[in-house]
Amino acid sequence: VSAVTARVRQAPVLPDPSQSAYKRAWAAFEYDIEQVHSGDVPLGRILVARYVWMDGEILPAATAEPGDRHELLLEPYEANSQIHSERQFHLDDVDLDTPMFYDVGPLTED
Question: Which of 51, 78, 92, 93 has the highest CB neighbour number within 10 Å of its CB?
Answer without folding.
Answer: 51
